[in-house]
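Deviations from the work plan: none for this task. Representative record:
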Amino acid sequence: MSNLKIGTQVAIVGYGAYIPIYRIKLDEIAKVWGDDPKSIKRGLGVEEISVKGPDEDQVTIAVEAARNALKRAPEVDPKDIGAIYVGAESKPYAVKPTASIVAVAIGASFALRAADYEFACKAGTEAIISCIAQVRAGMIKYGLAIGADCSQSWPDDILEYTAASGGSAFIIGRKSSNTVAYFEGQYSVTSDTPDFWRRDTVKYPRHMGRFTGEPAYFKHIVAAAKGLMEELGLRPSDFDYFAPHQPNGKFPLRVAKMLGFKPEQVKPALIAPWVGNFYSGSSITGLCKVLDQAKPGQRILLVSFGSGAGSDAFSLIVQDAIEEKRHLAPTVEELINRRKAYVDYGLYCKFWGKILM
Amino acid sequence: MRDVAVIGVGMTKFGELWDKQLRDLFVEAAIQAIDDANVDLKDIQALFIGNMSAGLWVEQEHVGPLLADYLGVKGIHTYRTESACASSGVAFRLAFMSVALGLYDIVLVGGAEKMTDVTAPESTHHLACAADREWEAFNGATFPSLFALIARRHMYQYGTTREQLAKVAVKNHKNALYNPKAQFRREITIEDVLESPIVADPLRLLDCSPISDGAATVIICKAEIARKFSDTPVYVIGSGMATDTIALHDRPDITVLYATVKAAKEAYKMARVEPKDIDVAEVHDCFTIAEILAYEDLGFCKKGEGGKLIDEEETEIGGRIPVNPSGGLKAKGHPVGATGVAQIVEIVTQLRGEAGKRQVSNAEIGLTHNIGGTGSSCVVHIFSRSKR
Amino acid sequence: MSRPKSPRIWQLAERRYRLLGVECKKCGKRYIGLRKICPNCGSKELRDVELSRIGKLYSYTIVHVPPAEKEHETPYIIGIIELDDGCRLTAEIVDCNPEELRIGMPVEMVFRKIGEESESGIIYYGYKFRPKL
């Protein structure tokens, strides 16, 4: 379906992530709803999650991530970005793309393609696919793909313990000595699976509990990963890193095992235990964490999962330029740990917007 | 240029005047001034009215004709000036100029503001319109916050203390005990100020002048006919006006109100007096820090020594340079458009010797200092018992 | 009562997002406002520049009494920042404990939500500053 080794080769020119400074410990949430914090944390493999500040939203996170990506691509003039795509499920405007605001905020040209994507948690990787295609087709010199969310969750729902805020951005362009990792292949699967959804005028999403596991998350990630590996003639041992979607701290380890990856291949990508699930920003921020530490020549498997449902799988090879570009912007580790401001459930509700005014 | 005299004064009580509207306030003050001056309404040739924003507070523009109509003087010339909290100070200067230059012989000038019909956050929003909307207010700066930025910098550059600021409020409240028109007539202590709720750190509630309703008016005329109307005419011997940047951040040193310095220089020059010749002053203490700045920028002391001046009690009624015997904006009240002329009412009253228990003894020369916004505009007037 | 201000916000939106100011070609002074005449030297030759995104805190205050559009957001911090290129501006300071504030503190620009016209109206974004990481 998508062997990207032949023809124009496409790569990541710069990458950047953004995570707000606020955190809420799962214990605080459990206190309010009468749950046992120990079993929740053990079951989910998550300690605390990020909370957006009161003046942050999906747009501000997207802009900050994009600016960090540009920091790692100092040779890129924003005016040479020909397309900007943003994947999200928590955009503040149902109609008015975040991409249009990002465009002006980074100084892109008026002659620009832009749009927002939605496919639950894989909307960010959708944005990447569009950019890859347009670069390959010679339609643009560079594309900017972003996945960021201020993830929604129903009060007193298990998702409240993992739905968090954050995102990442990637500048995509032709492979060169300035690019940090190039795409070897891409493979996607799509089905109509009602595991998790949000109706148009409803503020919070609904999901079907355990149904979101096997028939949804695991089925699609496994299918996309296997499909890609088959096309490229690769096996799990050919990869150094596996960066799947992270709805919690457990599922990534399980799906890694199911596919035949070792824990050491997936652990470097993990972010959920300390910051939760960024929805459209989840798997790709895991990718950023991997890029923060990967060595040139290593191979990465990125597989997103979006409820509804579908999966996008990518194979990437790290290049030399990663070593000099890596430190031009905060690493994911730095974003997770540099400055943490803990809030209680009341402040969490105030900041996120769960209080009826 | 002819000499100009103040022959009548009037003002409403300042405060939360729930049952009065803007037009009621102005007419009440105007009638007082007209009676005080013994003039006939039909002798008045023009109305100069200062009002910051009846549009924002009570959805009324076209304030000149409105008030002329309610004063019953259809056909009269009206001029409404706006310069934020210096609106009526500017109105007075224009009125003074019009009489001095021979355009009119007798005019009424006043100011009015009705601020209490909206919620506090709305008033805070309206007051912030005196700052730079796009580059200060848009980003969340409020009026008190801008003066707080000045206070913090003044404390950093000169070591001015929280207690010194508090003393300004304490003094003004004490003075207002003897002012029947004042909004607040109760003494406060330094502790009261320091323990009052924070408005914009380091400024607290009792560092800030209140939201008030009120009006003040004076009648002025060419000096040669003043004695027909008043046995105690008070002469305008100096007037100065200046502007500074609209945004605080565009000034090289935010602890100097350049507009005050320049306007005062002009007024002193015209009056041929120096700061040391001033016997009594009404300055613009919208916040306690603003009075400290006024001491310095009007030349009553060196820059940075305003705190010392109040520590030494020099600005008390019995001190070297009594400041705000009326209670100032802090205790008298601050219906923004009315303040400029209200200060003039007080100085004229002082120079006439009619200030009762708050009288400054032997007051011959008085000064009023009225600023708009963070000192983006300033008007200074000097008055005397004798002609220039 | 909501007063739609969409065009007025749009007129300066890009300048706020990218911290665009003007620089006087004659005397070199920089301003955040969109000026056509330099207040310092009177020159009419001013050009657009991207202001420095790093600076130091020149003064600060913690606001507890808000204007209508910032109700429910108090307390918040307002500061005057002197950017490294000499230009000064006024902005909210975020991601910061009040106890950390001191004159001279290094700060850097971030892109944040400033407010919204109403729940159904447009959202406006702009610059704020946080302690330099």
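Chain B has two domains: 4-119+211-228, 130-209+237-384.
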